Amino acid sequence: MGDVKLDSIKGMLSVFSKNEDVVTDNVDQYNKELQEAEKDYEQEEYIDHDEFMKQIKAWYIRE
Question: Higher confidence at residue 26 or residue 23?
Answer without folding.
Answer: 26
